[in-house]
């Protein structure tokens, strides 16, 4: 069995009636096992999609259909250990993010062992996203693959279209369940099995492997009189209480403090389906996925704090590699309604860039990430910023927050500008694709210039206060 090197992500799902503009929104941090794991942002054209897929981590292989769709992807810059496509939107405006590594228990893997040569996070986006026309179809395709080939790990998989969001969780090697997220709800998933009560008679809200209930009965997996997927297939360990549940607690606290007033970071009964006390914005999602328990005793960046002794794992950490917020907007022509908000490296110190996804290429500063450091590349520039800022947090965060505020304002302005340009041109087909590609390039150039300027400012400021500093004023 392989354990994923991208093993500690955090997911947020926001239904269309819970979001600020009626969009369906799915988002996930990709966190690697190491602090540095260079990522890039690409478009995969149908002619570049493999027809016979072979995993690099296992012996898993599968023949893929002959009619793939174009799609965006955020793969590893160095493909030696696989694709790890992670997040994207296809040409039919279906979004997918895979995967949120989750937990299980020994009784489950004893009854349905993991498949050492099954599929996993390395593979899932590549073998699924180009072949689906809706979020529901995404669940169905992955379900069939899981039942046939099995998996070597436990994962949560995110799907959305402009109408629905589905969250899918695996159980053991071959079993699974998926729940449609209610339109007025949001979800925070922190590396822990989350789905709770399953209604086997509600196909509009739940899908599952065909023998799931029988499997649980035959192997005496269900300790309750009802069917709570988290209780049956999940875990409740010391690691969960320090590594997983605190992230859900902080996110739920942010969206509605009253909902967790009687809870603690270690509460093991936090709800899966939640409701915020307001509409949720892109900025809200970015804040939570960058958070490190601000305004609590657990903030590792608080003055005098020792990050080595903080009891709970933050969401925004040095091992963040990329964050994709996949937004499918209603009431806008489908040719330019889908946006992939993207950023690289440690989330407390970066900003999002909005990319329209109906394009055939991505800007080179996001696409051409190298294995070695290049400060003119988005991944590496943000990695350098996070390295400097983490050691000089109090001195530099005002500059970073000013940059984040300004560039998020620019991002919203750019979306409105491009929407208006597309509407005025009434462009269609290849004309839209070309215009959106040009718009993305302009947006990326602006954000990259601002990021390089910030990097320069931080280097200059941080260099003034280093061991060995010496000025004439010392005499």
UniProtKB/TrEMBL annotation:
One BP term from GO: proteolysis
Listed transmembrane segments: none
UniProt keyword list: Dipeptidase, Hydrolase, Protease
Major enzyme class: hydrolase
Source domain of life: Bacteria
EC numbers, comma separated: 3.4.-.-
Gene3D superfamilies, alphabetized: Penicillin V Acylase, Chain A
Pfam families associated with the record: Peptidase_C69 (PF03577)
Name of this protein: Dipeptidase
Organism field: Lentilactobacillus buchneri subsp. silagei CD034
Organism classification: Bacteria, Bacillati, Bacillota, Bacilli, Lactobacillales
């Amino acid at each position: 069995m392989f354990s994923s090197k991208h093993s500690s992500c955090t997911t947020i799902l926001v239904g269309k009636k819970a979001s600020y503009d009626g969009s369906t929104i799915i988002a996930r941090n990709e966190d690697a096992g190491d602090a540095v794991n260079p990522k890039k942002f690409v478009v995969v054209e149908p002619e570049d999609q493999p027809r016979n897929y072979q995993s690099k981590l296992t012996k898993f292989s599968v023949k893929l259909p002959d009619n793939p769709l174009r799609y965006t992807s955020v793969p590893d810059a160095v493909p030696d250990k696989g694709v790890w496509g992670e997040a994207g939107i296809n040409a039919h405006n279906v979004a997918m993010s895979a995967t949120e590594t989750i937990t299980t228990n020994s009784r489950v893997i004893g009854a349905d062992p993991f498949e050492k040569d099954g599929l996993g996070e390395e593979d899932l986006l590549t073998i699924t996203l180009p072949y689906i026309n809706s979020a529901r179809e995404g669940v169905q395709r992955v379900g069939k693959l899981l039942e046939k080939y099995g998996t070597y790990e436990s994962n949560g998989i995110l799907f959305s279209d402009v109408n629905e969001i589905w969250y899918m969780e695996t159980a053991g090697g071959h079993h699974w369940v998926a729940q449609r997220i209610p339109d007025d709800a949001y979800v925070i998933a922190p590396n822990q099995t989350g789905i709770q009560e399953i209604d086997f008679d509600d196909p509009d809200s739940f899908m599952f492997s065909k023998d799931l209930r029988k499997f649980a009965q035959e192997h005496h997996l269900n300790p309750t009189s009802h069917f709570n997927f988290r209780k049956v297939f999940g875990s409740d360990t010391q690691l969960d209480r320090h590594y997983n549940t605190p992230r859900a607690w902080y996110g739920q606290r942010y969206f509605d403090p009253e909902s967790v007033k009687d809870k603690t970071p270690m509460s093991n009964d936090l709800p899966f389906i939640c409701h915020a006390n307001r509409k949720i914005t892109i900025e809200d999602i970015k804040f939570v996925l960058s958070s490190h328990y601000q305004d609590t005793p657990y903030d590792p960046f608080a003055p005098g704090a020792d990050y080595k002794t903080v009891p709970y794992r933050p969401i925004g950490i040095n091992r963040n590699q990329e964050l994709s917020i996949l937004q499918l907007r209603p009431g806008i022509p489908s040719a330019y309604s889908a946006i992939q908000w993207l950023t690289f490296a440690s989330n407390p110190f970066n900003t999002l860039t909005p990319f329209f996804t109906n394009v055939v290429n991505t800007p080179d500063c996001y696409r051409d990430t190298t294995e070695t450091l290049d400060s003119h590349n988005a991944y590496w520039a943000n990695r350098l910023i996070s390295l400097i800022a983490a050691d000089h947090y109090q001195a530099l965060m005002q500059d970073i927050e000013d940059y984040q505020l300004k560039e998020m304002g620019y991002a919203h302005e750019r979306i409105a500008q491009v929407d208006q340009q597309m509407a005025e041109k009434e462009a269609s087909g290849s004309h839209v694709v070309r215009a959106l590609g040009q718009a993305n390039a302009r947006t990326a150039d602006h954000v990259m210039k601002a990021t390089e300027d910030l990097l320069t400012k931080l280097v200059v400021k941080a260099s003034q206060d280093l061991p060995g500093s010496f000025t004439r004023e010392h005499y």
